[in-house]
Task: structure prediction
Amino acid sequence: MSLGRTDADGDDESIVAEINVTPLTDIFLVLLIIFMVTSSALTNQGSKVDLPRADAGAGDTSGVVVTATADGKVEVDGRALAIDQLGGVLAAALQRGPSKSVVLRGDRTMVLEQAVQIMTIAKTAGADKISIATAPMERR
Result:
């Protein structure tokens, strides 16, 4: 806050207070950067999977993330569970979220039957849209 006088004669009654918004703007920009970094880290949570490669553009990654590893383990938003628990957990997660979409992050070596089983369970749990997460193709 800066103080200044409006009159040249120096009356105390004429002091004007001004708020400097530059430090406030700096704080907001730092907070914005922190939120951007943490939100990108949250989308990559869970087990490490080797995603299949595709030449498709970046799609919508919002929704409930189901991760399926090569050894058959299943996670919903980073929480490990058995395949028979998947329907109930997905239904509850889809009810809480704003969109009824599911993103399947499956290892590229996983069995196709398991992917179809997970997509069927997601559809039964109330998913309107099911996406498969991919990694960009390597250019040669």
